[in-house]
């Protein structure tokens, strides 16, 4: 095991070195320091298992060093050495995570007990982790970072885009190759270092601006693709000025990792923390519009247009999800549920999917491409089902009429227009419509219009006369009368009541 000593009185560190035969205990005294800053840099360079530190030193106190170690998640255990006047201070240090404290003058027995206890604790941790050997050494090498001149830094998270067919061994070999490439490249360019952190490849760039960093990363991506025959994506962190800020900046890079699920829709292979990934201005109404057109296309049996409608829909899902896989799964499942409801409204037999099982299955997908392929087969299944079901011409006609009303409800609809749409006698059409829907034509049109009116009433701040115009009524009075007949309330009163009830919940 490796240990360092630090005290602003050299006689103390010399005495500790001579007090115990450290070599026989399997401990190497790797460094001795006389001030806090030197001791801190020694910890960063040497990554010792143990540090015996004076609690009061120039430049940095022992407590300062302990806090820095904890912030960087370093594995160095710390034992404090304190004078009597620092006794209460040293006791308080245990709350910050110090292993022990010793009073000056240091007694051999107390020193041995403290060090032995610390060694045993480390050995126990090593034993517990013996069966968890990582594929790559997992240590953020702050020693190499501290060797860089004082400057600003920028962490970069590197992700390799593997195909679905590649096994773990191939992925591991590719990662090894890429790390080797990065180490050589950055060493030659003298612009940073590369290491592995919890199985992730991390680059720390030094002393360059955001634009310079982006340009260099683009060069690295192109060169790396030549070297390992794989596309890679980089998540570029913010500029920071201190080594201790690196872990926090790196964590913010990790938060953007979820966008990699949508990698086929990324406009750039370099994502930047704090910047929007998709420049497309996205509103929920655009997703609803794409979903409604897809459902209409399936019900209307638009076989030739299905592919185009579906591609538009999945693009809207991708943009609306904004990097969240769970949201994308939810949007797909919602579309299936609404399609199933549309089948039910049209008296058609749907596929009756188990929505909970469907959601769980979608979560297993490893990429947005895989997710969209999965749901494409489901939507295609509905298209095939309605094509098989529509053998009766009357059913085809009534579905066409309902879809026409849904599409043109804002217009002046009457029996003549709808009868002509399906090439039927207007006098027969009225009876035909009621036979297949259970409602007369005017009542049905009013119901469709009211469904859209309710959506506008609760989802927008449009005025009553604007909603009347948007849903096909000639004047607000006619709209209000129709609304009261169905809901036994005026539009404004209904809006206030429903919104108030929602706030209570």
Keywords:
single chain, 505 residues, alpha/beta, five-stranded parallel sheet, five-stranded mixed sheet, 21 helices, elongated
Quote the beta fraction. 5-15%
Number of helices: 21
- Average pLDDT level: 86
Structural class: alpha/beta
Oligomer: single chain
Instruction: List the uncertain runs.
Output: 127-138
How would you write the strand order of the largest sheet?
2-1-3-4-5
Bin the helical content. Answer: 55-70%
Q: Main β-sheet: number of strands, strand sense, barrel status?
A: 5 strands, parallel
Radius of gyration: 35 Å
| Count of extended strands | 10
Quick structural summary:
The chain has 505 residues and is α/β, with parallel strands linked by helices.
Structural account:
28% of the residues are buried. By secondary structure, the chain is of the alpha/beta class. Strands 2-1-3-4-5 form a 5-stranded parallel sheet, sandwiched between helices. Strands 7-8-6-9-10 form a 5-stranded mixed sheet, sandwiched between helices. It has 21 helices and 10 strands. The protein has helices spanning 10-19, 36-46, 62-71, 87-93, 108-128, 142-146, 168-189, 210-228, 246-255, 284-299, 306-321, 325-345, 355-363, 368-389, 393-408, 415-421, 426-437, 441-459, 464-470, 476-487, 491-504, and strands at 2-6, 28-33, 50-54, 77-82, 100-103, 153-160, 192-197, 200-206, 232-236, 270-272. β1, α1 and β2 form a beta-alpha-beta unit.
């Amino acid at each position: 095991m490796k240990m360092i000593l630090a005290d602003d009185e050299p006689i103390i560190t010399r005495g500790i070195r001579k007090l115990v035969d450290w070599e026989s205990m399997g401990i190497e005294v790797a460094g001795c320091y006389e001030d806090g800053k030197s001791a801190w840099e020694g910890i960063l360079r040497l990554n010792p298992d143990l540090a015996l530190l004076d609690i009061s030193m120039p430049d940095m106190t022992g407590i300062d060093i302990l806090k820095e170690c904890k912030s960087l998640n370093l594995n160095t255990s710390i034992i404090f050495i304190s004078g009597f006047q620092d006794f209460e201070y040293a006791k308080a240090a245990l709350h910050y995570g110090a292993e022990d404290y010793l009073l000056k003058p240091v007694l051999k027995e107390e020193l041995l007990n403290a060090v032995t206890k610390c060694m045993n604790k480390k050995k126990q941790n090593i034993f517990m982790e013996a069966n968890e050997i990582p594929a790559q050494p997992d240590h953020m090498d702050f020693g190499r970072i501290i060797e860089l001149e004082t400057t600003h830094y920028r962490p970069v998270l590197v992700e390799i885009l593997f195909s679905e067919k590649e096994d773990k061994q191939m992925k591991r070999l590719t990662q090894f190759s890429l790390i080797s490439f990065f180490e050589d490249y950055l060493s030659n360019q003298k612009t940073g270092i590369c290491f592995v952190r919890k199985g992730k490849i991390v680059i720390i760039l030094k002393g360059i601006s955001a634009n310079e960093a982006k340009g260099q990363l683009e060069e690295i991506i192109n060169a790396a693709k030549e070297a390992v025959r794989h596309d890679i994506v980089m998540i570029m962190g913010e500029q920071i000025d201190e080594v201790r800020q690196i872990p926090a900046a790196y964590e913010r890079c990790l938060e953007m990792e979820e966008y990699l699920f949508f990698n086929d829709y990324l406009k750039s292979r370099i994502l930047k923390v704090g910047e929007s990934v998709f420049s497309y201005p996205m509103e929920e109404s655009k997703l609803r519009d794409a979903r409604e057109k897809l459902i209409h296309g399936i019900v209307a049996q638009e076989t030739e247009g299905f592919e185009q409608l579906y591609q538009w829909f999945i693009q809207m899902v991708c943009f609306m999800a904004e990097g969240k896989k769970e949201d994308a799964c939810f949007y797909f499942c919602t579309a299936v549920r609404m399609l199933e409801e549309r089948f039910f409204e049209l008296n058609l037999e749907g596929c009756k999917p188990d929505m909970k099982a469907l959601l769980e299955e979608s979560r297993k997908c490893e990429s947005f491409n895989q997710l969209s392929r999965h749901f494409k087969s489901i939507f295609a299944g509905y298209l095939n089902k309605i094509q098989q079901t529509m053998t009766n011409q009357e059913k085809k006609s009534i579905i066409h009429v309902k879809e026409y009303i849904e599409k043109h409800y804002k217009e002046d609809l009457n029996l003549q227009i709808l009868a002509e749409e399906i090439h039927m006698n207007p006098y027969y059409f009225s009876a035909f419509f009621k036979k297949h829907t259970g409602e007369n034509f005017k009542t049905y049109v009013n119901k469709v219009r009211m469904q859209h009116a309710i959506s506008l009433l609760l989802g927008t701040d449009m005025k009553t006369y604007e909603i009347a115009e948007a849903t096909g009524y000639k004047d607000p009075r006619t709209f209000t009368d129709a609304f009261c007949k169905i809901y036994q309330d005026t539009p404004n009163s209904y809006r206030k009541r429903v919104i108030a009830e929602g706030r209570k919940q």
